[in-house]
Amino acid sequence: MKNKRIITCAITGSVHIPTMSDYLPITPQQIADNALGAAEAGAAVVHLHARNPENGMPSSDLKVFEEIISRIRDKNKDLIICLTTGGGAGMSVDERVSVVPAFKPELASCNLGTINWGIFAIAEKYKEFKYEWEPMMIELTKGFIFQNSFSDLMKMTSTMNENGTKPEFEVYDVGHLYNCAFLMQKGYVKPPIYLQFVTGILGGIQSTPYDLMALHTTADRLFGAGNYKWSVIGAGRQQFPMCTMGLLLGGNVRVGMEDNLYLAKNVLAKNNGELVTKMAGIMRQFDLTPATPDEAREMLSLK
User: Fold this and answer.
1) Given its phi and psi angles, is residue 236 left (phi above 0), alpha (psi -120 to 50 degrees) or beta?
2) Is residue 117 very low, low, confident or very high in pLDDT (cuts 50, 70, 90)?
3) Are 8 and 302 in contact (CB under 8 A)?
4) How far apart (Å, rounded) are the C-alpha atoms in residues 151 and 225?
5) Which of 35, 80, 211, 300 shows a CA-CA span of 20 to 30 A to 290?
6) What are phi and psi of 154, to 5 degrees?
7) What is the Cα–Cα distance from 259 to 24, expressed in whole angstroms?
8) How wide is the angle at C-alpha 276 spanned by C-alphas 273 and 278, nearest 5°?
9) In this predicted model, what pLDDT tens digit does every residue of 151-162 receive, in sequence order?
10) For 131-142, what is the mean pLDDT?
């Protein structure tokens, strides 16, 4: 397995607004089609959010999630599905975690700490919007705090343990690794753990080699190399540079339109499969191979 790397594809997220790209998947059909295309291109895992199919607003509606999952499973029963518990701005913790008991996914995201979260900086260039909710949400994020308290983390991890779901821990800063170590000490989390280093988000650690090394070396010190697996995200134009560095350090990677809308400078990705294809191509340049879903299950100790 030493030459295998997991590609996760985050299909739509709750950060980007439809105005930013005509290709952003919104409806269950579009999200499912993009997930299937990502799988064909080499993704072993797809990370899913739901959106209101009428206007693209982030949604916690379990019926929408169910439709997305059903459409994927009708055509691909092997792909690993990772559901979000990050949700979107304004959703309660109960709303966010409700997907876990409802669908019992193999993987679900679990954000390891509270941070400021703002997309207003990247949206300032837009003066006209497709939907009324978009400028209001952008303005809201100037004062938005993405809450993930210790109480929230205990609830999230307990719910996942009860439903056989492995947490994919989202790490936005070095202190979040210490939060995870505390949860392990108290028995909420058992190794081997899976960490997703999220870089480049305003309010969190940034996308530089120094920041990624800080996360990687801190995780090594806290958990020991054999007790965790990790992956890296680079937001926006740093998606491919940070993922490439992650590969060279022995990590796995996440690409997708949740994190980055562009295939190259000034070239919008038409679908998530294009982003996965580019990442898989970079991987092969270093004699690395995208892991299959079953290989990823073995690597991550999934059920």
Assistant:
1) left
2) confident
3) no
4) 28
5) 211
6) -65, -40
7) 11
8) 110
9) 999 999 999 999
10) 90
C-alpha distances (whole Å) from 243 to each of 2, 153, 246, 276, 295 are: 17, 27, 5, 11, 20
Token pair listed for 35 = 């997930």
Residue range 165-177, pLDDT digits in tens: 999 999 999 999 9
pLDDT of res. 140: 85
Buried b (16+ CB within 10 A) or exposed e, 221-258: eebeeeebbbbbbbbeebbbebbbbbbeeebbbbbbbb
What's the rounded mean pLDDT across residues 33-51? 98
Q: What letter represents residue 198's amino acid? A: V
Q: DSSP string of the chain?
A: -TTEEPEEEE-S-SSS-GGG-TTS--SHHHHHHHHHHHHHHT-SEEEE-EE-TTT--EE--HHHHHHHHHHHHHH-SSSEEEE-SS--TT--HHHHHTHHHHH--SEEEEE-S-EE---HHHHTT--S-SSTHHHHHHHHGGG-EE---HHHHHHHHHHHHHTT-EEEEEE-SHHHHHHHHHHHHTTS--SSEEEEEEES-TTS--SSHHHHHHHHHHHHHHH-GGGEEEEEEE-GGGHHHHHHHHHHTT-EEEESTTT--EEETTEE-SSHHHHHHHHHHHHHHTT-EEPPHHHHHHHHT--
Round to whole Å and give the CA distance between 169 and 166. Answer: 9
* The CA-based dihedral angle spanning residues 278, 282, 284, 289, taken in that order and rounded to the nearest 10 degrees: -70
CA distances from 81 to 52, 58, 118, 165, 168 (A): 20, 18, 27, 11, 11
